[in-house]
Amino acid sequence: MTITYTPIGRVRSPYESPADVDHDAVDETTGEIVLDGEYEAGLEGIEEFSHVVVFAQLDEIDEYRLTARPPHADDLAVGVFATRSPHRPNPLAQTTVELRERDGATLHVRGLDLVDGTPIVDVKPYVGSIDDEDASFGWLQSLRE
Which InterPro entries match (predicted)? Predict the structure, then answer.
């Protein structure tokens, strides 16, 4: 089976490479999600949401690992599917960002952790759930405490 996605836009970000992403400062990192003009009408109404979920193809990742060492978790090694590591068999990213403004086909966002030029494959409004307070955060829980 082959799955093919056509990018609908690109990221504009201060990060030039994956190594440049500062995980300590990413909450304040601003950038833009720029969709191709033909998709602008698909953004109608998105400015009413405070946050959006961005799906991207991590096109600079050329290898995967089945285990990962999460940032800030010193000696912890877990399976890649239990992390947000970019080194995955299918290097797709899902990131939730604050939507600060929409200008045509451009979304101005904060909290961006993607590299400049990263292809965007989808954008969706973030819709919290009543179940959020009951969510479990696995190994991350111990880092929060």
Answer: TrmO-like_N (IPR023370), UPF0066_cons_site (IPR023368), YaeB-like (IPR040372), YaeB-like_sf (IPR036413), YaeB_N_sf (IPR036414)
Q: Has residue 24 got a pLDDT over 90?
A: no
Domain of 115, in residue numbers: 9-128
Tell me if 34 is assigned to some domain. yes
Lowest mean pLDDT among 10-19, 28-37, 78-87: 78-87
pTM of the model: 0.83
Which SS3 state, helix, strand or coil, does residue 132 take? helix
Q: Which residues are within 8 A (CB) of 127 and not within 5 positions of it... i.e. 6 or more apart?
A: 49
H, E, C per residue of 1-70: CCCCCCCCEEEECCCCCHHHCCCCCHHHCEEEEEECHHHHHHHCCHHHCCEEEEEEECCCCCCCCCEECC
Q: Give how many domains the chain has, as a whole number.
A: 1
Owner of token pair 């201060």: 14
pLDDT score at 135: 61
pLDDT band at 98 (very low <50, low <70, confident <90, very high): very high
